[in-house]
Amino acid sequence: MTKTMRSSLLRRGNTMVGRTVTRRVEGRTRNSPSLQSKANGTRRNRRATFVTRAVAEPETEVAEVEEKEARPVYPLTAIVGQEEMKLALCLNVIDPKIGGVMIMGDRGTGKSTTVRALVDILPEIEIVANDPFNSSPNDRELMGPEATEKFNSGESQDTAYMRVPMIDLPLGATEDRVCGSIDIERALTGGVKAFEPGLLAKANRGLLYVDEVNLLDDHLVDVMLDSAASGWNTVEREGISISHPARFILVGSGNPEEGELRPQLLDRFGMHAEIRTVKDPELRVKIVEERSRFDEEPATFRAEYVTSQTAIKDRLEEARQVLKDVTVDREIRVKISEMCSMLDVDGLRGDIVTNRAAKAIAAFEGRTEVTEEDVGRICVLCLRHRLRKDPLEAIDSGDKVKETFNEVFGIEED
Q1: Distance between CA atoms of 118 and 105, rounded to whole angstroms?
Q2: Residue 212: which region, alpha, beta or left (left: phi > 0; alpha: psi -120 to 50)?
Q3: Catalytic residue chosen out of the listed positions 46, 349, 367, 377
Q4: 163-194: b or e for each residue (b if 16 or more CB lie within 10 Å)?
């Protein structure tokens, strides 16, 4: 056999099952069946102690770099107009169980800017230190696998505080990046189920923002629907199953001219805000001037709104504390359900969200009792996207909800 044929067979031996594995040691190539046997024995020994772990990247240095290089965020209190959108976002911060908000409107109306402005006013939450799932130290429903195991065994866990996370979901994201993936190579060689958390893990107990959500791929929409419905994300791959909590506020924005949203996904949003382009010339000039100032000197511009930003943040934190004491009179509850029935809203999600939003707006204003005016301010946000679409109907869905509210609550329009 010639030298050429021998080297060819050796190369082929690397890829054929049952052949001797060729390894390179200290620059020389040699056959090492003993090494392969030893590795196999190690795997068999470790298989009995297969441990589930999540791989968390060291966050200290990364966080410092991100903070230095982060883009400056436009202050929420500096945004002119768009009160409906800002109210919907604030109510979801007060009560995350409302279920998120969908923002649809013309391009260039500040949808993305307003959503990202929430970063500065989000409250802080207590988490298990160095946990990749933002696990709660007390609530078992919000704990990842490792935190749950330690909690059940009675082991003490270090805690820390962090601002409610806000995660951007890009349109081009892969399913592995969204759901997380399992490192099969590390599982086979090290005997460890090494799970790399995805965006759903990072968004747990926070906000998941999808810009241009109506252009999102169907398979990612299915993943979000499943997680939003159950509050858990399960990764199944190569016979390995890992589940972790994925409870987040779903916030989406888009332009209706670019495509409609699937009804199943639209129904998952607790609120639906419609944004219109500002027509007043004076207001348009003011918006342009403010934006120009921010682009030229963002640090100086943001410093002007520190006081107002702090005030709205404190107001939201107080509202979160007051929320548990807010009550809704039974008569108002009955009228809310009557309104939903007259509008022919499918299911009971509309009733539940309207009650929650009414309590949130009462807490936002420092009250502990819901009034009819509170329901009137939020009913359009909660119900307009739940109506059945009739192409022959001339009236806007929001106007139809408002008319039905006036009829049920006996309010005469001026």
Answers
A1: 19
A2: left
A3: 349
A4: ebbbbebeeebeeebbbbbbeeebbeeebbbb
pLDDT at 392: 56
Give the DSSP H/E element, type plus range, for residue 210: strand 206-211
Joined together, the tokens standing for residue 88 give: 């919907």
- Pull the structure tokens for residue 90: 């604030």
Which range has the worst mean pLDDT, 15-24, 91-100, 216-225, 239-248?
A: 15-24
CA distance 355 to 369: 12
**349 an active-site residue?**
yes
- Note the pTM of the prediction, 2 decimals: 0.77
Side chain identity at residue 172, one-letter code: G
Question: What's the longest Cα–Cα distance across the chain?
Answer: 101
- Phi and psi dihedrals of 249, rounded to 5? -90, 120
| pLDDT confidence of residue 323 | 94
Cα angle value 82/363/249 (rounded, 5°):
60
Assigned token pair, 361: 């707006």
| Distance, CA of 47 to CA of 192 (rounded, Å) | 9
Cα(204)–Cα(233) distance, rounded to whole angstroms? 10
